[in-house]
Amino acid sequence: MSDNSNPYGGFGSQMTGQAHFGGAPAAPAQAAGGAAIKDTTTAGFTKDVIEESRNQPVLVDFWAPWCGPCKQLTPVIEKVVNEAGGRVKLVKMNIDDHPAIPGQLGIQSIPAVIAFVNGRPVDGFMGALPESQVRQFIDKVAGPAGADQAAEIEAALEEAATLLAAGNIQEAAQLFGAVMQAEPENPKAIAGMAECMLAAGQQDRARQLVESLPEEVKKTAEIQALLKKFEQIDEARKLGDPVALEHALALNPDDHEARMKLAKIRNVEGRREEAAEHLLLIMKHDREFDDDGARRQLLQFFEVWGPKDPATIMARRKLSSILFS
């Protein structure tokens, strides 16, 4: 998604869609003293390593200015730590200036890297390893890259869906937008953003968002459900005035055609339970109407609403009672 086609712009001045998953965003390789890399001393070791390792793994790089292999390892380990996205921190200790700690740990050869987790040393290596092996070491200590991010994204999507259901469109859109920054083709995030646009009365923008998607993304269940919702919106526009349909039902409650139309209109208005009740009422009175059309329409609603929607759960329960009583 380019900045010029930002799908979540326009919801308000606070809408940025900026968030980071799986820890801090990866930064370019930097010298010691950066957010993920720092030097420590004998006095600072407890705070910088022992205490900090209770938040995330800390790698301690024991080195010395005269050590050739140390100079080989430094750019490699700093690069990999910065690209780890906050999964680990790197603390560097010059053993010439601070010999007590490496002496206590039995460090006899450098470079030596010791990983601390929850205040204790858990693993380590010696020598100037190649980048691939340093990455493997960090994955072993901190878990594979992407595992935390996937969990955070899923949690963000669930929270966004809850916010949207509660009518908090702005906050929901911020979370959906943040996920789209991390995963531009995440179908749940795209569908959620489109739902926010629909709720905000921005139907054209929602359609443009979906139309711009690659064909493979359009085939996902979430986007297919959204396309069906667009079809329902288009159909509802042609069904007439809901006030007139309600009046017709007041005069003749068995006007199933008017009730079917009103159900479709209420659905696109977001009044899902009311829409379902109209269709269930038709089924109770006349299963043969429109060749069991009320049941077929209700099943189409379920496809768009999703299995966890409260209206789906309620209507399925009542549908089962009608079908199997």
UniProtKB/TrEMBL annotation:
One of its GO terms (cellular component) is cytosol. InterPro entries: Thioredoxin, Thioredoxin-like_sf, Thioredoxin_CS, Thioredoxin_domain, TPR-like_helical_dom_sf. The keyword Calcium does not apply. One of its GO terms (molecular function) is protein-disulfide reductase activity. Keywords: Disulfide bond, Electron transport, Redox-active center, Transport. Residues 26-143 form the Thioredoxin domain. One of its GO terms (biological process) is response to stress. Belongs to the thioredoxin family. This is Thioredoxin. It comes from Rhizobium daejeonense.
